[in-house]
Design goal:
Helix content is 35%, strand content 19%. The chain is an alpha+beta fold. Helix 8 crosses helix 10 and helix 18 packs across helix 19.
Length: 820
């Protein structure tokens, strides 16, 4: 098949292709913003082609194509992968980019490179009892997910795989190589760059029956929109719609029309194989689009359809799977094997990484992009399909937008870059990050570190057990509230707000839990039983006793595995942040930012791994010791700050810690300006840090001015971090962003906050349910509403109490809901 950039898709045999060009004049409505954007893509491509002096250029396969010419070269020498528009050079080695199939998914690697046989040293089997075959291979060969791999000269041979009706290799980049001949390059320097992975986003439309959800055994697939984009580029270079029956043209896109649904499905499958994407994405493709296509193809007996992966002989099969974690709970999903390609379902990524009020594509797009889908209701899809060319064109634009939005969201949220960097940091395949929990990432790092020290990682069977005390939360200083107002009289709801009109300094421990584990050498390999102290003849200087009574040897006796892992992660993050400051290329900056974020998340997850009672390797002694040290340090910080910064020591006021949570404290130093609060905050952080064991460090983080404290984990304020003259943002924690809440939060920037609250209530006529309530009242109302959806909230009056934390004055606002 011949792909051209401007055409954006293949010229399918047996399909009628709608001509690209002017928009049909028969369509009465003016073009939507999305249609104008598609037309702009086409104009940009035409300008680029004109500048290059050509009508179009061939699409270069991602990861750069590996070419081999038997007539010109011996078997052990091939052309190195070369970038688009570059001259191909003769090289004695073969470099496989991260876009090449078996770097993306290790099931492909196992089938093709390992051939399904165990190539590992049998003496190492014990170490890998907790790991899969894929993970064993990666650890032994020092390969990490999404890395660059080099095959030395003479250590490989090209494979020619023929399928029925073909005379040559389907994928000329396949090679056979011994597992121990792979050269894996660490993600540093020139090997830190990311290959231009080819990302295919698609969406399907089905002609359902009225009031019935589409069923693949009955309802046909009427359109499939596909967009292909290279990672790092801004626009998709392929924009194609496969449609049943004729369809009017769309500027900037290719329309392929089919008279039979069977031909449509067959052609789209061939399109996927020819485009050869590294990543397949979309919205809910895992549980709807892909299963529907496979089941529909089976119903119509399209036998060639399910071969969607890079292994020609491997059939894509639909299976049920379940996933359970503390973060996401239990989820039932569908899985489709597609060797050599990563299925990057955007919905699953958002469910895993973001807490949103709604996860529909429309809501998500508006939340992150301030864009929405095309205006087509699901109830009229079948009617549009049964109409004419123009109605089907409207449906095609709708379908194209649904395929385009996931690409925009991936780019906006940097999902692919962040996940690839996480795979590199933790050493697991990219697919594991989407289908597995958090623990597999720590297991991979433990295995690699254990291998260096010739240690065996045991298998621990657990079913839950004893719990332990978590982090400290210092009670917030909410001030005095009249007793009469604290009584919830019949029909009244009391909302109490604590308002600080002076700067509040926030001091934060840098990587608190990882630094505790490093400072005190907390690890599986350093844990001592009390009976072992005498047996090993250890002196008190050789070990420490944690606040929870557990014993660990010091690093001078034995350095633990976990502290070494954490040191490597945090030092790598420090290097990445230093490079980020120097880098000027926007795309490289995104990669470095994704890397430092992955390193931070990975370091913080080590503590959680030890505390997971139903996990791979739980250790209560470590987790409870970490939180014990954390509680102790928060209390010590409070004592140190309040004892030093006093009037008797020459300061303007007596400092007061008004709130503290896990790894930070919020201090009222009694100064009048943000700059003074910043200066004292930095001084206090350095002074308090001198009392703790390195690398534990307390840092100045920010100043809130003014500051609204509602309850534990519920506060808001104007955020100052570097510039004392201008705030960085409005920071809200634990507060629902309803319209009134946003208006209510604006009181923080008002000279007279009490008057502003009254203005909001009286003049904006807010409804009762949009107001902020106390935690107790809100919980009670929710429980009642869950029990009986018809129940009404019997609240007669709303009482808001706004307290000034400096003057201790309070203002009471009381109104009836029907008057608001």
């Amino acid at each position: 098949m011949d792909f051209k950039r401007r055409n954006g898709g293949p010229a399918m045999g047996g399909a009628s292709q709608a001509k690209k060009g002017k928009m049909s004049t028969e369509w009465e409505d003016s073009p939507s913003q999305f249609e104008e954007e598609l037309a702009l893509f086409d104009e940009m491509e035409m300008e680029a082609e004109s500048e290059e002096g050509q009508a179009g250029h061939d699409v270069i396969p991602v990861g750069y194509c590996i070419h081999y010419t038997p007539k010109n070269q011996p078997m052990n020498t091939v052309m190195q992968a070369s970038p688009p528009k570059a001259t191909r050079l003769m090289k004695p080695t073969l470099t496989l980019r991260s876009g090449v199939c078996f770097v993306c998914t290790w099931k492909f690697l196992k089938l093709v490179v390992c051939g399904g046989h165990c190539l590992l040293d049998p003496t190492k089997h014990l170490r890998y009892a907790v790991c899969t075959c894929d993970g064993r291979f990666m650890v032994d060969s020092d390969v990490v997910g999404c890395c660059w791999i080099e095959l030395p000269k003479g250590k490989y041979r090209l494979r020619e795989e023929r399928s029925e009706g073909q005379t040559g290799s389907k994928y000329p980049g396949k090679v056979d190589v011994a597992w121990n001949d792979l050269v894996s390059h660490p993600a540093e320097g020139e090997w830190q760059r990311i290959a231009p992975l080819r990302v295919l986003s698609f969406d399907i439309e089905c002609a359902g029956r009225k009031g019935v959800f589409p069923e693949p055994e009955i309802d046909p697939v009427i359109q499939i929109a596909s967009m292909v984009q290279r990672q790092g580029e801004k626009e998709p270079f392929i924009r194609t719609v496969f449609t049943l029956q004729s369809c009017a043209s769309i500027v900037g896109s290719q329309i392929l029309c089919f008279t039979q649904e069977k031909l449509l499905l067959q052609s789209w499958a061939e399109f996927v194989r020819t485009v050869d994407p590294d990543i397949i994405t979309g919205y809910n493709i895992q549980n709807f689009d892909l299963p529907y296509l496979l089941n529909r193809a089976a119903t119509l007996k399209v036998n060639v359809f399910p071969y969607l992966g890079r292994v020609w002989s491997s059939k894509s099969v639909l299976k049920d799977s379940s996933f359970q974690s503390k973060q996401m709970g239990r989820r039932e999903n569908k899985t489709v094997n597609m060797e050599g390609r990563v299925q990057f379902d955007l919905l699953q990524v958002l469910l895993r990484d973001y807490k949103l009020r709604s996860y529909t594509l429309n809501a998500v797009s508006f939340h992150f992009l301030q864009e929405q889908k095309e205006d087509v209701q699901h109830s009229i899809i079948t009617d549009l399909q049964n109409g004419n060319e123009q109605t089907r064109r409207r449906l095609a634009v709708y379908c194209l937008k649904d395929a385009y939005l996931p690409l925009r969201l991936l780019q906006k949220l940097m999902c692919v870059i962040n996940y690839m960097e996480m795979a590199r940091v933790t050493g697991v395949p990219l697919t594991y990050l989407l289908s597995r929990g958090q623990q597999i990432k720590v297991v991979s790092q433990l295995l690699r570190q254990a291998m260096k020290q010739d240690l065996v990682m045991p298998v621990v069977r657990t079913e839950g057990g004893e719990d332990y005390t978590g982090a400290t939360v210092i009670e917030p200083e909410k001030g005095f509230v009249p007793a009469s107002l604290m009584i919830h009289q019949s029909g009244n709801c009391v909302c109490v707000y604590r308002y600080y009109s002076v700067p509040i300094t926030t001091l934060d421990f840098s990587s608190l839990y990882p630094s505790i584990m490093m400072a005190h050498n907390l690890c599986y390999t350093t844990l001592l039983q009390k009976s072992q102290v005498e047996k090993l003849s250890l002196s008190p200087e050789d070990f420490i006793k944690t606040p929870t009574g557990d014993l660990f040897v010091k690093s001078s006796v034995r350095k633990g595995l976990l502290p070494e892992i954490l040191e490597n992660l945090l030092s790598a993050r420090k290097r990445a942040k230093a490079e980020l400051k120097k880098e000027t290329d926007p795309f490289k900056k995104q990669v470095l930012d994704g890397r430092q974020l992955a390193l931070k998340i990975s370091a913080n997850s080590v503590y959680g791994f030890t505390g997971a009672q139903v996990g791979k390797l739980p250790c209560l002694e470590i987790s409870q010791s970490v939180t014990g040290f954390g509680r102790q340090m928060i209390e010590q910080t409070k004592q140190h700050v309040e004892s030093k910064y006093t009037i008797s020591n020459g300061y303007q006021a007596d400092a007061k810690v008004i709130y503290g949570d896990t790894d930070s404290v919020m201090v009222k130093l009694g100064v009048a300006t943000v700059q003074e609060a910043m200066n004292l905050g930095k001084e206090a952080a350095d002074w308090v840090s001198s009392y703790f064991v390195p690398p534990i460090k307390l840092e100045f983080e920010k100043v809130y001015y003014p500051y609204l404290l509602i309850n534990k984990k519920r506060y808001a304020g104007l955020y100052f971090s570097s510039n004392a003259e201008h705030h960085d943002k409005m920071d809200c924690k634990g507060i629902v962003s309803s319209n009134l809440n946003l208006q209510f939060m604006s009181l923080l920037s008002e000279i007279q906050p009490i008057a502003f609250v009254l203005k909001v209530i009286l003049y904006h006529k807010a409804t009762f349910v949009t107001l902020l309530f106390s935690v107790q009242q809100g919980s009670e109302n929710k429980r009642e509403m869950r029990k009986n959806s018809n129940v009404t909230l019997g609240v007669q009056n709303i009482i808001l109490v706004v307290l000034n934390a400096v003057t201790t004055c309070s203002t009471v606002l009381s109104h009836r809901p029907q008057k608001l």
